[in-house]
Amino acid sequence: MFAGALLLSACSSYRPWINQVRLPSAPEAPTAAALDAPASAPARPVVVAVALSGGGARAAAFGLGVLQALKATEFELPGRRTNLLDEVSLISGVSGGSILAAHYAALGDESLARFEHDFLLAPFEGRLLQELLWPQRLYQLSSPWYGRSQILAERLDALYRGMSFADVRRRPGAPELMITATDLTTGAPFDFTAEQFELICSDLDSTPLSFAVAASSAVPLLLSPMTVRNHASHCPDGTARTALASEGAAGSYRAELLKRSVEGYRNAAERPFIHLVDGGVTDNLGVRLLLDRLVARGSMHANFADAPPGSIRQLVLVTVNSERGLAERIDSSDRVPSTGQVLESLIFGAGARESQITLGILGDDLRRWREELQRSRGQPGSPFAADTELQVVSISLHDERDDRIRDRLLRVPTAFTIEAADVRELQAAGRRALRSAEAFVELERALLRLREPAPN
Hints:
Shape: globular
Largest sheet: 8 strands, mixed
Distance between the termini: 80 Å
Strand content: 5-15%
Structural class: alpha/beta
């Protein structure tokens, strides 16, 4: 007991993992556009991206149901049979959605069989709370470089079997993984991609999946920020230039905002450290930065410049919104809202409004991209075949048609552990929501046409 008291009375100098400078001799990870296929990859007639929103285990369970339904959606391409999940080239996640996104990117189909047992039905949150009281953890928490989110990262590291982004990149058939957090200083999205890490002259490959997911899940006040080091001052002049700063959409306000964000990371003397919190603070859907980058590159053609001419026939984006409703409406009373009520309203009320804005932006972009496709598909040198279509399938927990089930699932708390019955019902709701979406029904009809060769 005396030894324990002595241990706790000391101030720890323990330092957790932090990203290192990228060595000039180190091979760089491929910098792929959001929906691009690498130049060395075979032609992909169907290019699918999936974005999983925040919402704790509720979002992970609902998203798992969607992935299951994508896997069950089989169709024929000339010479082979496949399914929509196997054609996913990008999976992105925020907060709770990032837990599933990283697991699927790392393990592929094994994730569909293991994720429920390894995370959704495991006492994940209870174990976290227990570890907070361990003498070793209390000692580590006395370090100014170690916070509660580091404990979360260590628990997640076991879930991901110690894997890094390099391990994902090396797995055959793995989609590109994009995890989004929030830059606490600027309020801008910060994504764990090769492009973003090139800006800070660091190595994404060596970054543990657990670190990125913990950063994306670090709810302000409840969990501590995660920190990355900005090594931009160590890069030779021009090394940190990436497609993020593209001039392809000069004059676009969104492109200018993205450019300013890029420039902010280049000044490492002013910002040597970047503190990250929950990605849902800025974009709970996890698609805003994705859309801005597509716009910044200037055209659909520019975003798929590496694809062979006429190879793409279907572009598909699936957005999964697992936001829940407010547990209590503060505008039903004239009493001063409590701190808890204010926090919940800021996270779920204002967050829901931002999600609607993002969906509105997506709708505007979709109309513009479809007009461009009409002009460019089938043209000489175009990556798009003459029958190329762009499909966006946006689904939400609010899409559940059974009033009783919908009301119950919308009240499932945002936590790392939820009731087993809710886990199963959320997965079923995710499968139903995808299959019943009008855009998905239209997509299924379009997939039937792909069994025939593309028209000239």
